[in-house]
Amino acid sequence: MRKKKNHYINPNQWNKLISDKSVTLIDVRKPFEYNVGTFKGAVNPNINSFREFPKYFNKLKKNKKIAMFCTGGIRCEKASNFLKQKGFKNVFQLNGGILSYLNKVNAKKSLWKGECFVFDNRVSVKHKLSLGSYSLCRGCRMPISVKEKKSKKYKEGISCPYCYNKLTKSQKDRFSMRQKQILIARKLNKHHIYQKEY
């Protein structure tokens, strides 16, 4: 049996595809990534693992044109193959993912809104893959915006609005002690074992 070919759309052709009103645009990343930034008009299945995909995709019509994207293309590849096995024929994916798009498409012509969460010390990136404005909460590992840092629930190295009410007193005390040690090490121009600069 011949394997069905995946439809990869290059970043410079992506805007044309997703501007078509008949296309369902799906961001297959996790909800917290979607909240940092996504394409205009994209929907997020609001799922946290691939095992949950079938429940979402069973609601879609098999003849519908679907455009999917993720950070680098790996999750889309998996989702695209799943849909093709289920009989979907018009499945397209952004070649190279969001990172390729942000690197190649001019910000003035872009349909991307926000920043792109990345799983490294940069936390988020903008067009041309320049460093974004997000930080990572050391309490729960969620990306934190500049606005969220102004919350009374944000304590550097300890908590943020996402985890403040979920952390136990013991956890907050532990994280507070770790943060004090990091600050002392920083003053001494030394690197603390748990210090990660984001």
Query: What integer is the average pLDDT?
Result: 91
Number of helices: 6
Radius of gyration: 20 Å
Q: Give the helix/strand class.
A: alpha/beta
**CATH homologous superfamily name of the largest domain?**
Rhodanese-like domain
Estimate percent helicity: 25-40%
Any idea what the shape is? elongated
SSE topology:
Blueprint: E1 7-9, H1 11-18, E2 23-27, H2 31-36, E3 37-39, H3 53-57, E4 65-69, H4 74-85, E5 91-94, H5 97-104, E6 112-114, E7 116-117, E8 124-125, E9 135-136, E10 143-144, H6 169-187
Parallel strand pairs: 1-5, 2-4, 4-5
Antiparallel strand pairs: 3-6, 7-8, 9-10
Descriptive account of the structure:
The structure is a single chain. A hairpin with a 6-residue loop joins strand 9 and strand 10. This protein has six helices and ten strands. A four-stranded parallel beta sheet has the order 1-5-4-2. Strands 3-6 form a two-stranded antiparallel ribbon. Strands 7-8 form a two-stranded antiparallel sheet. The protein has two domains: 7-129, 3-Layer(aba) Sandwich (Oxidized Rhodanese, domain 1); 137-187, no CATH class. It has 198 residues and is an alpha/beta fold. It starts with 6 loop residues before the first strand and ends in an 11-residue tail after the last helix.
Brief write-up:
This protein folds into two domains: 7-129, Rhodanese-like domain (Oxidized Rhodanese, domain 1, 3-Layer(aba) Sandwich), CATH 3.40.250; 137-187, no CATH class. The chain contains six helices and ten strands; from the N terminus they run βαβαβαβαβαβββββα. The chain has helices at residues 11-18, 31-36, 53-57, 74-85, 97-104, 169-187, and strands at 7-9, 23-27, 37-39, 65-69, 91-94, 112-114, 116-117, 124-125, 135-136, 143-144.
